[in-house]
Amino acid sequence: MTTTREAGSAEARAARGLRLRVGIAGLGAIGAPVVRRLDAEDLGIDVVAIAARDPQGARTRLGTLRRPPEFVGLAELAERCDIVVECLPSALFDEVAVPAIERGRIFMPLSVGALLDRPGLIERARATGARIVVPTGALVGLDAVRAAAEGTIHRAAIVTRKPPAGLAGAPYLVEHGISVEGLTEPLRVFAGTAREGARAFPANVNVAAALSLAGIGPDRTLLEIWADPTVERNTHRIEIDSDATRLTLIVEGIPSEENPRTGKLTALSVIATLRGLTQTLKVGT
Asked: Concatenated DSSP letters for 211-241?
């Protein structure tokens, strides 16, 4: 069994001034910008390993790096790295999450919705001393939601509007025969809880999953999803009503050119979260 001493290796290395070793699972719209930024800027963190379906194609996409990482299998990331960042289709989540948690690593998931139906992973992390660190991603204001959750949150809701192309092919739409092609006006395609939404739209509602984990849980957090041809950006309206604050947030994320389901801010959020593991001054909870 992984020991607590091993689990604390990332923090211990940072405290001793040693560079942290990070592994990236997936090299798409999130993983590739993160690798390039960490290679170009010295944050005390080195990308030492990458897991990608097409290593040769990934090398071409990355271009010339100062410190080229190794390409390894998903399970090997946890063997080589202090921090494992998951940027994969949700179907591959367990292949990288389980080894990272078993080895007591810092595990940084972007497929946050996958955590909602895997409470056993969180319990296992407690036993191995692993940490699961969820980046803020597109959810500006997550710190305020976490603070409100220290009191009593009465209601948490999120309405997500995306250009139809950002929702096309989602399992829920296919299963229910809902077409988003050729829309001329907004169409509500889902209403339910964050847990139900994560199952129905595994590639689209990680923001709602993060909100639920920061607040009152996936079964009490309400979610609506709209295919909206009038918007060009992924738009989220978050409403929190608590005994400490009433909070309304509107986030308009610019979609990535590589993948319209992913906002550009998500990769930057990963970089900011990694920076927070090593910087002397950290602002925000």
From this structure: HHHHTT-TTTEEEEEEE-TT-SSEEEEEEEE
Q: Which of 161, 199, 236, 261 is catalytic?
A: 236
Query: Are residues 149 and 243 both part of a single domain?
Result: yes
The CA distance from 43 to 275, in Å, is 6
Cβ partners under 8 Å of residue 46, min gap 6: 19, 20, 21, 22, 38, 67
Confidence of residue 5 (pLDDT cuts 50, 70, 90): very low
In this predicted structure, what is the pLDDT of residue 6? Answer: 47
Residue 176 a catalytic site member: no
- Span 42-60, mean pLDDT? 91
Residues 108 and 167 occupy one common structural domain = no
Average pLDDT along the chain: 90
What is the total count of domains within the chain? 2
Give yes or no for residue 213 having a pLDDT over 70. yes
pLDDT band of residue 63 (cuts 50, 70, 90) is confident
Q: Is residue 284 part of a domain?
A: no
Query: Domain check: are 99 and 238 in the same one?
Result: no
For 115, phi then psi, to 5°, come to -70, -25
| CATH number, domain containing residue 59 | 3.40.50.720
- Give every strand in the sheet of 221-227, ordered side by side: 187-193, 221-227, 153-162, 234-242, 246-253
Instruction: Give the residue numbers spanning the domain of 118.
Output: 4-138+265-276
**What average pLDDT does range 74-90 have in this prediction?**
95
Does residue 109 share a domain with residue 156? no
